[in-house]
Specification:
- The complex is a heterodimer of chains A (121) and B (488).
- Chain A has 121 residues and is an all-alpha fold.
- Chain A has 2 domains: 39 residues; 53 residues.
- Chain A is 65% helix and 0% strand.
- Chain A is built from 4 helices and no strands.
- In chain B, helix 2 packs across helix 10, helix 5 runs antiparallel to helix 6 and helix 8 packs antiparallel against helix 10.
- Chain B is 52% helix and 5% strand.
- In chain B, the strands form 2 sheets. Chain B has a 3-stranded antiparallel beta sheet.
- The chains are: A mainly alpha (121), B mainly alpha (488).
- Chains A and B meet through helix 1, helix 2 and helix 3 of A and helix 1, helix 2, helix 4, helix 5 and helix 6 of B.
C-alpha cells in the first residue's frame, strides 16, 4: 500500500520531534541552572550591547527573496514537465523553453537594473 | 522492505517501521559523532597537527565526551531573546534534516519511504531548516545572530534554485522523481552513471550542495572570523548541539543524495564487481564523497595560520579567494579562479596529510630535548664519594647531603646516607654535575616539576635515583677535558 510510505515519513518526523524534546528534557534534569545577570545579557564581544538587536535589514534581501520565489516556482513547474518529458514530446519542450525564456528575460532585466549586485544602493 | 511496504497497513507493520526509524536515527547519530571526530582529525592532519588523541584510544571518544559536556552544560537564554522562538528554532532546524533521510535508498532492498516524489520531498524539507536558522538568528536579539540568520536566508535563496535545477536533467533522463528508480536506471558499470551525461548538473549540484550545508567556503552564516558564531552565537548546551547535529545530518543526506543521483547508488562501478553487496557500496561512496566535501571545503578555508613552508602559498591564495568571495557576497561564486584555488589547496592538503607533524603527542611521547638541555638531576648513590663538592658549589644551597661510615669495614671513606635537592630554589645551573668528580649526579632531559604542593618539590635520594630516564649523555663533570690529566 502506498500509504505505508507516508506512515514511514510520519514516523521519521515523529522521531525528529522526539529526539530534541527528549534530549532537552533529560538535559534539563542534568544541567545546572544558576542564572545571574551578566549571563543573561546579549553577547556583543564583551561590550555592553548597543541599541536593539532586531534592526531593520537591507532592502536587498527582499529583492533577492522575490527573485528566489520566481525561480523556485519555475523549478516547481519544471519538475512535472521533466518527469513526463519523454511522453510529452516536442510541443511541451518548446512550451517549456518559452516559459524559461520569459523568465530569463526577466532575469536579464533584473541584472540590468543591478538587482543582482549587492552594493548597488 | 518492499515486502513490508506492499502489505496493508497494520500495527505490526507500524512497529517494524518504527524500529527501522529508530535504528536509522541511531546510525545517523553515530555517523554524526564520528564525522565530527574524523573532520577534526583530517583538519589536524592538514595543518601538520595530530588532532584529537586524548579521549579514548586514538581520541575516538572525543565527540562522545563533547556531547556529554553539552548535555550537562548550563543553558542560558538571554533576557532580551524571544523565549519561545529561541527554544523552537533548533528543533525546527533539526526535524526536517532527519525527516529528509526517510526517502534515501541505501540498497535495492533497503530503503525507507519509497516515495514517488522523492527528490521534491527532499528539496522541500531541506528548505525548512533555513527557517529554523533565520528564526534562531532573529530570536536571539543579537546583531551577530541576526546577520548570520539573514546571510543564511540569502545564501539558501542563492543556491537552492541551482541545486534544484541541476537535478532536472536526471529527472528528464529517467522520467521519475523516485530515488530508488533513479538508481535502478544506472545499472551496468560506471559509464551508465548519471554524472557522465549530467556532468554540468553534477558540478553544480556538488557546489550548491556544499552551500546548502553552510560549510566552508560557504560558511557565511557562521563566519566565525567576523560574526563570532553567526546565528547560534547566543545558543549554548544542547540547543546549540541541535544546530550542529542538523548540519551534520545534512552532510550525511547530501552525500547520500549525490551518491544516489549521480554516482550510481548501490550499482557497482564495474560489472565484474557485481558480487559486492550494494549495502557496502553506498556507505563507501558516501565516505568518499564526504571526504571530498571536507577536503575541498576546508582547504578553501585554509587558515593563513597554517604553520608550514609549502602551505603558505596556498593558504594565502585561499585566504585571498575567501576574501574575494566575501566581498562579492552573493554576486556569484567566482568562477574558474576559485576552482583553481580549491585544487591548489587540495594538493597542499594531500601533501600535508602524509608529512611529518610539527606537533607532539606531548605527555604520551616525551619531548626530545637537545642533549645540552639542563633538566632535573639524576643521582646514583653507588658512585657518590660524599665529597660535598656539589653542596658547596650550589649557588642557591638547595642540596643537602649527609654521609655515613662505609658499612663494609674493609673499606675506608664514607657512603651517602641522605641526599636532598630542594627544587623550589634549584636553578638547574648544572654546577653540581660539573663539579662532581664521579658523575654521581648527572642531569636528565626531564623538566616536569609542577605539583600541587610545595612540599613535593623537595626531592629525596630515592626520587632522584629513580629519575633515571633520558639521562644526559654528555655531562660537563670533572672528567678530563684536556691538559695534563687528559692523557693520564
Amino acid at each position: 500500500m502506498y500509504t505505508n510510505n507516508y506512515v514511514i515519513v510520519a514516523i521519521f518526523v515523529g522521531l525528529g520531534i522526539f529526539l530534541p524534546v527528549a534530549a532537552l528534557t533529560i538535559g534539563k534534569w542534568l544541567r545546572p541552572s544558576k542564572p545571574i545577570d551578566p549571563k543573561l545579557t546579549t553577547y556583543e564581544s564583551g561590550n555592553e550591547p548597543v541599541g536593539e538587536g532586531q534592526i531593520r535589514f537591507n532592502i536587498r534581501y527582499y529583492l533577492f527573496a522575490l527573485m528566489f520565489v520566481i525561480f523556485d516556482v519555475e523549478t516547481v513547474f519544471l519538475y512535472p514537465w521533466a518527469v513526463a518529458y519523454k511522453k510529452l514530446g516536442l510541443f511541451a519542450l518548446v512550451e517549456m523553453l518559452i516559459f524559461v525564456g520569459l523568465l530569463a528575460v526577466g532575469l536579464l532585466y533584473a541584472w540590468k537594473k543591478k538587482v543582482l549586485q549587492w552594493t548597488s544602493i | 522492505m518492499m515486502h513490508f511496504l506492499e502489505q496493508p497497513f497494520g500495527w505490526s507493520n507500524f512497529f517494524v517501521f518504527l524500529l527501522l526509524g529508530i535504528v536509522m536515527l541511531l546510525i545517523v547519530l553515530g555517523f554524526v559523532t564520528y564525522a565530527i571526530y574524523f573532520e577534526r582529525k583530517v583538519i589536524g592532519w592538514m595543518q601538520f597537527r595530530i588532532g584529537p588523541n586524548r579521549t579514548g584510544p586514538l581520541g575516538l571518544l572525543q565527540s562522545v565526551a563533547d556531547v556529554t559536556k553539552l548535555l550537562i552544560k548550563e543553558d542560558t537564554i538571554p533576557r532580551k531573546a524571544e523565549r519561545q522562538l529561541f527554544i523552537l528554532a533548533p528543533v525546527i532546524t533539526f526535524i526536517p534534516s532527519f525527516a529528509a533521510i526517510a526517502v534515501l535508498p541505501f540498497a535495492s532492498n533497503l530503503f525507507f519511504a519509497d516515495l514517488d516524489v522523492g527528490i521534491l520531498y527532499y528539496v522541500a524539507l531541506s528548505g525548512i531548516s533555513t527557517i529554523g536558522i533565520v528564526l534562531g538568528g532573529w530570536a536571539s536579539n543579537n546583531k551577530y545572530a541576526l546577520l548570520g540568520g539573514m546571510r543564511s536566508a540569502a545564501q539558501m535563496i542563492s543556491y537552492e534554485v541551482p541545486l534544484v535545477i541541476s537535478v532536472v536533467g536526471i529527472v528528464m533522463m529517467t522520467g521519475t522523481l523516485n530515488l530508488r528508480l533513479i538508481v535502478e536506471g544506472q545499472a551496468g558499470g560506471f559509464w551508465h552513471w548519471n554524472f557522465i551525461p549530467q556532468i554540468i548538473g553534477f558540478v553544480v549540484f556538488v557546489i550548491a550542495g556544499i552551500s546548502e550545508l553552510n560549510r566552508t567556503p560557504f560558511d557565511l552564516p557562521e563566519a566565525e572570523s567576523e560574526l563570532v558564531a553567526g546565528y547560534h552565537v547566543e545558543y549554548s548546551g544542547f540547543r546549540f548541539a541541535f544546530f550542529m547535529l542538523a548540519e551534520y545530518v545534512y552532510v550525511f543526506a547530501i552525500a547520500s543524495l549525490t551518491t544516489v543521483l549521480f554516482l550510481g547508488g548501490w550499482q557497482s562501478p564495474l560489472p565484474v564487481l557485481d558480487f559486492i553487496p550494494g549495502i557496502i557500496l553506498v556507505p563507501a561512496q558516501i565516505f568518499v564523497h564526504r571526504l571530498f566535501l571536507l577536503l575541498a571545503a576546508r582547504d578553501a578555508a585554509a587558515h593563513p595560520d597554517r604553520p608550514a613552508h609549502g602551505s603558505r602559498l596556498a593558504g594565502a591564495a585561499a585566504a585571498r579567494d575567501r576574501q574575494h568571495f566575501r566581498q562579492r557576497d552573493f554576486n556569484g561564486i567566482g568562477g574558474w579562479g576559485r576552482m583553481k584555488g580549491i585544487m591548489k589547496g587540495l594538493g597542499v592538503t594531500f601533501k600535508a596529510m602524509t608529512a611529518k607533524k610539527v606537533t607532539y603527542a606531548y605527555p604520551d611521547v616525551p619531548l626530545e630535548m637537545p642533549d645540552r638541555f639542563r633538566g632535573i638531576q639524576h643521582f646514583e648513590p653507588d658512585k657518590c664519594i660524599v665529597c660535598n663538592m656539589c653542596a658547596k658549589i650550589c649557588p642557591t644551597e638547595c642540596i643537602t647531603l649527609t654521609g655515613k661510615p662505609n658499612p663494609d669495614p674493609e673499606k675506608k671513606g664514607k657512603v651517602i646516607d641522605t641526599y636532598d635537592i630542594n627544587f623550589e630554589i634549584c636553578i638547574l645551573c648544572d654546577l653540581c654535575t660539573e663539579v662532581c668528580p664521579t658523575e654521581a649526579i648527572v642531569m636528565t632531559n626531564n623538566f616536569e616539576l609542577s605539583t600541587y604542593s610545595r612540599d613535593e618539590l623537595f626531592k629525596d635520594m630515592k626520587w632522584l635515583t629513580d629519575n633515571n630516564e633520558n639521562v644526559r649523555k654528555e655531562n660537563n663533570s670533572a672528567a678530563p677535558k684536556g691538559g695534563a690529566k687528559a692523557n693520564a
